[in-house]
């Protein structure tokens, strides 16, 4: 019989590397996996359970909240609430952090998540996902505060995501490479299907919302034209592919090679993606897989958040293409504004 490597077994085998034999981190990761299984079930049955559509409320970003957004958020919080190693949770859907019941004073870990990335695609059955990040806090014995979360992405001890599409796939890293696990409905377990993920050097596709071109700065226009219209033989077979769900676009590019960009532009100069819940965890994973992530000026993981819901531009994927975008940014920064109009 072929060896079956489940996610729980995989985490247990790596336990000694990051858990100091306490079992806390193992339990936390397994609970996050359990939460995504429950969300996966809800997503798969969404059309039958009256969980499609909007709630009629807005989240802290002023966006309309979908019913499944709210359900996923509360499921994740509920399953983390009883863990004594987790002191506080920060969610894209909540304005403030939430303290857990079991670990609010003694827990060593902070958890951030985007409960359901790609909300605009929920009602049309396009791939969506959950993104999470785990950090340690320096002090225990008191309640965590928002400032405990406002640290550079380099301080993450783990990050991952689960995408809900034709199958549910759980991808995570604890700083020692990236592995992916597909949910096998027949046994109810995530099973190793993508060991040691490394982003290919080929650029199979680039992902960008081309409808925003009217608002792009000159460096973005030049960069996208270079990838899609230029004469560089490296991009001869490169295609434009854009799902509109960040985690789905990044996942595809992680497997086949490519770059995703949601740059700052004239409409949103500081970007639209959330640093804590989207950019930091995905940058952590992509770097572990040999790629890179930038805001156009510097490394995403080096950015220190100024608030729980800080937004940033994001260019993420193959290291060569990410570095190339930074070159375009620096090049156009040296050109007088009237020369690029």
What does this structure look like?
The protein is built from eight helices and 17 strands. The chain has helices at residues 7-13, 15-18, 24-44, 67-81, 218-228, 246-256, 275-288, 319-333; strands at residues 54-58, 64-66, 86-91, 98-99, 109-117, 128-136, 156-164, 168-173, 179-184, 189-194, 205-207, 239-240, 258-262, 273-274, 292-294, 311-312, 314-317. It has two domains: 7-194, Fructose-1,6-Bisphosphatase, Chain A, domain 1, CATH 3.30.540; 205-339, D-Maltodextrin-Binding Protein, domain 2, CATH 3.40.190.80. The radius of gyration is 20 Å and the shape is globular. A hairpin with a 5-residue loop joins strand 8 and strand 9 (179-184). The strands form four sheets. It has an eight-stranded mixed β-sheet, sandwiched between helices. The chain has a five-stranded mixed β-sheet with strand order 12-11-13-17-15, sandwiched between helices. Strands 1-2 form a two-stranded antiparallel sheet. The mean pLDDT is 90. Helix 1 runs antiparallel to helix 3 (24-44) and helix 3 (24-44) runs antiparallel to helix 4. It is α+β, with helices and mostly antiparallel strands. The chain is 29% helix and 24% strand.
